[in-house]
Please model this.
Amino acid sequence: MLIRTEIGVDAAGIDSLLRRSFATEAEAELVHQLREDGLLTLGVVATDDEGQVLGYAAFSPVTLQGEDKQWVALAPLAVDESVRRQGIAQQLIYEGLDTLNEFGYAAVVVLGEPAFYSRFGFEPAVRHQLHCKWPDSEAAFQLYKLADNAFDGVAGQIEFAEPFNRFD
Model:
């Protein structure tokens, strides 16, 4: 399994993976729109020896109260059912975090299962007086600090890129 930054030829494989990994096509359409709008900060893929995409993690910009703080959202994250429980999601997340850190990003947010994401160092956003617009998401809305001072003096609502509004 090769974990790397996505390249142009991966787009069709990513789309296929997302369409078969989720109950609806919303995540595939989200990534397509983020890519079209130039809002895909980073995409990390897991490919087999033939180059087939078997895992994917997307990162896109978010703002805090409308201000760019060099934060991104992790969404979606998908691993093909045939290769789940082999640590691929972990490798995708860590590769993404390492790359974002190298590029000077300050933090990553995620809306996901706390028991899963806490294993990678994500913590509840509410600890820092941060929230997102989706109701009843307090437990699932989490943060990962890349820069030492990322959470200094912050509070308020994290706003995801416009294509995420499809999930309202």
